[in-house]
Amino acid sequence: MAVPRSFKFLLRPTAKQAAALAACLEDHRTLYNAALEHRRTAYVKAGVSVRYGDQSAELKHIRGDDPDGQGRWSFSSQQATLRRLDKAFAAFFTRVKAGRTPGFPRFKGRGWFDAVEWPKDGDGCRWDSQPEHPSATFVRLQGVGHVRVHQHRPVRGRVKTISAKREGKRWYVVLACDDVPAEPLPGTGAVVGLDMGVACLVTMNDGVHVANPRHLAATADRLAEAQRDLARGERGSRRRRKKVARVAALHGKVRRQRIDYAHKVANALVRAYDVIVHEDLRIANMTRSASGTVEQPGRNVAQKSGLNRSILDAGWGVFLTVLAHKAESAGRELIAVNPADTSRTCSRCGHCAKENRVTQAEFVCTACGHAAHADVNAATNILRAGLALRQAAEAA
């Protein structure tokens, strides 16, 4: 079985190449904003809806009128930028039809456009562009040149698309690959239910707790100091740009730590269990602000804000995404269940009541007296619900 997979590597550009990458990103941002303005103006002034095909057809003239600017870059990468805008409009209309908050596509300011994509390896880009080099890997990007890559692991499958991404002061190349062979692991016969939490990242039904390292909380003092320093900076100054880079570097470190930890925990789980059951969490809804409006202000806003910060710091979404990819590659079965009432239902007798949850960590059933760690009790209910879903699917 083959699966799609992405590979991300650090780039080692020269000073000249770094400047070219920054110019490439800026020109693609300008193109995105100009295309958005074109669509807005055409609809407001003439009631005309401009499509991707119309704007793609105009690229030839744009490049011809600006040979030293837009004309330097790959035509296909500029088409990818226009498709990116088209997807933003498609998502906007989908939200309108569904009755959700529309969120009209916005202009991209500096710092809000961080990646350029080349849709096909060999069209304006080339992975491993100098295979004869004895000790280094290079990627060739049109207008930039052969950029050295810190390739820390082999690339498998067929390289489909190539993206250059900026994170703070660092540049990365992201390869989207097809036909990557799966790496099934030998069966263990074990099943597990996972309860996600803040005190512990994961609690299993067998009583094992996986610690939550709280990476953001560990960096909070340095981050607060850097943000206060940034707030005092004068907009547009060189010193303020350095302060922005410092804040971005701290956030980048926290993000990398969180992803690395998620990979380690997910690896341990897929090696140990054949079936993994977890909660189907709606994290965006769970972390929605409680501030309310001027007419109807929210309650316990500070408490809810702290809970939201703790949930996001735990990185549930990152962990579950990584776990899904690893389970697919390893041939493991991943089941998501509705988390409703799993924390207040007794895993022994099935009695469900709010009073069963005595404290955050203690569960005592008011019907049968069963006592257990609250998260272990919830994980047991989650596992039972997942196995029931699995059995129903097999019987259907």
From TrEMBL:
Say yes or no: keyword Transmembrane present.
no
**Annotated ranges, domain Transposase putative helix-turn-helix:** 1-44
Keywords (A to Z) from UniProt: DNA recombination, DNA-binding, Metal-binding, Transposition, Zinc
Highest rank taxon of the organism: Bacteria
The residues covered by the Probable transposase IS891/IS1136/IS1341 domain are: 183-289
Q: Name one Pfam family in it.
A: OrfB_IS605
Record InterPro entries: Cas12f1-like_TNB, RNA-guided_DNA_endo/Transpos, Transposase, Transposase_put_HTH
Query: What molecular function does GO assign, one term?
Result: DNA binding
Q: Tell me where in this chain the Cas12f1-like TNB domain is found.
A: 316-382
Gene Ontology BP annotations: DNA recombination; transposition
Q: Which family does the similarity line name? A: In the N-terminal section; belongs to the transposase 2 family. In the C-terminal section; belongs to the transposase 35 family.
Name of the featured protein = IS200/IS605 family element transposase accessory protein TnpB
Taxonomic lineage from the root: Bacteria, Bacillati, Actinomycetota, Actinomycetes, Streptosporangiales
